[in-house]
């Protein structure tokens, strides 16, 4: 038998509720737009000027401060930036454990099962669905039960 020093058992009924209660105060730390669904969080804002870039970086800094205060470490390598509709050469970073992580800029990202592109086109999503349905069709043909 092993003992659990912290956290919540996976698959518990109270797990999602306790997680929501635990991260609920994050909304107070972010000044730009924030969207949360389960354990997925997005910070978004319209970037027009350098001041907008600075505001978003301030929110990322606040996110790091909240992380320290809440004893909840993030994996900076999972963070990405997607620029939609602007060409400003802006870079963002997170600081954690006295390391500075530059956030990778991407042109497409899967979000809750949907492929989102920086041009907001659905063609790549359609290609992925077509390939997946083709694979499923071929698999079902080769796995007939008698």
User: What's the Cα radius of gyration?
Assistant: 20 Å
Count of DSSP helices? 3
Give the helix proportion (percent range): 25-40%
Task: Find the count of extended strands (DSSP E, 2+ residues).
Answer: 8
Sheet of most strands: 2 strands, antiparallel
Question: Which whole number gives the mean pLDDT?
Answer: 79
Secondary-structure-based class equals: alpha+beta
What pattern of helices and strands is seen along the backbone?
HEEHEEEEEEH
State the low-pLDDT regions, or none.
none
Give the overall form.
flat
Give the spatial strand order of the biggest sheet.
1-2
Q: What oligomerization state is this entry in?
A: single chain
Describe the structure.
The protein is of the alpha+beta class. 34% of the residues lie in helices and 22% in strands. The strands form 4 sheets. A two-stranded antiparallel sheet has the order 1-2. Strands 3-6 form a two-stranded parallel sheet. The chain has a two-stranded antiparallel ribbon with strand order 4-5. The relative contact order is 0.09. The model has no long low-confidence stretch (mean pLDDT 79).
